[in-house]
Amino acid sequence: MIYPQSDRTVVVIGLGLMGRSIATCLLSSGSRVIGVTENLQASASAPERIRQLLAEMSAEGFLSRPVESVMNRFRMTGNLNDIAEAEIVFESVTEDLKLKQELFQQIERVVSKNCILASNTSAIPISLLQQDAQNPERILGVHWDEPAHIKRFLEIVPGSATSQESLDRIAVLAATWGKEPSVLRKEIRGFITNRISYAMFREACHLVDSGVCTVEDVDRALRNDVGWWMPFAGPFRYMDLMGVEAYYHVMRDLLPDLSTDPGIPKLMRDVVEGGGRGVRNGRGFYQYSPDEAKRWEENFVKFNYGIRRLTAESAGRSLESHPES
After folding, report:
1. Which residues contact 142 (CB under 8 A, 6 or more apart)?
2. FRET partner for 274 with CA separation of 20 to 30 A, picked from 24, 213, 264, 307?
């Protein structure tokens, strides 16, 4: 069921990088958003950053309403008692099981029984978050990815006690947020994209560690092959287009040779244990000057808007999220 726009209040707990992006997405789709932070002073810049993201969306053609009218639907608080009217609560706090469990218990004492409680975890099983909950059937995982206000990606993940009604409710609403959600039928660590991505990351590191090629070679090959078709079709559609029987034969010969090492690859260990943090400190698999790091980050944002625009146009969709009616 789609509820009237004026009646929907959504809460985002945690206003870090991901929380701000989630709040931006929800605001741009017409929801009223309450941002909750443990430290109002430390999060003082959050509203301005959300305003900047909305202005960016407007400049790119993804938001037609005036930015300030959208921002008027946002307020920030440090008090959980202020979220009693919420229909949905998204938590995007530190990836700590005990912290999240205690947070959900606090939320349940404040909100109505009909309020959905969603975790943005990418690693903690939802069933563990449901333990000791008053209404575990309304707790589920909603996995966003940065930048959440641009990407159409969303994974909806059940725990052992999650009701089908809760899953369906979020899946319907996700379309109004401009998302194309994937709803998992059962709980599994890493969900869909993380499991497939990390299998790729492991093989990429394995190829470099084995002396087969360089980091640059891997990036170049993947960017110009997988990166070429992936925005158009997922792996199953792509195999259909190319001739699925060919992949059957290649799998038989190639899969036994792929890395299944459960340990952290040497290449990754060397980078991280050597202090590398990527563009954040200019040291990762590549080295970056401050100007280069800034340029890569800015180009990444532009690229995300470009891909969103390309996929929307190819599917005949509007660039904007779909405001609720």
Report:
1. 90, 118, 119, 120, 154, 155, 156, 157, 170
2. 213
- The per-residue pLDDT for 5 is 46
Does the pLDDT at position 65 exceed 50? yes
Grade residue 8 by pLDDT with cuts at 50, 70 and 90.
Answer: confident
Non-local (6+) Cβ contacts of 160 within 8 A are 126, 127, 130, 187
> Average pLDDT of 214-234?
95
3-state secondary structure of 117: strand
The structure tokens listed for 110 are 């404040």
| Helix H or strand E segment including 201 | helix 193-209
Q: Which fold has domain 5-183?
A: Rossmann fold (3.40.50)
DSSP for 77-113, written as a single string: ES-GGGGTT-SEEEE---S-HHHHHHHHHHHHTTS-T
Give the pLDDT score at 32. Answer: 95
For the cut 50, the answer to whether the pLDDT of residue 6 exceeds it is no
How far is the C-alpha of 30 from the C-alpha of 177, rounded, in Å? 8
In CATH terms, the fold of domain 199-314 is: N-(1-d-carboxylethyl)-l-norvaline Dehydrogenase; domain 2 (1.10.1040)
Q: Which amino acid is at 228?
A: W
* Tokens 């996995």 sit on residue: 143
Domain boundaries, the chain: 5-183, 199-314
- Which pLDDT score is estimated for 314? 67
CA atoms within 13 A on the CB side of 73: 24
pLDDT of residue 282 exceeding 90: yes
Residue of higher predicted confidence among 325 and 307: 307
Answer for the pair 89, 9: CB distance below 8 angstroms, yes or no. no
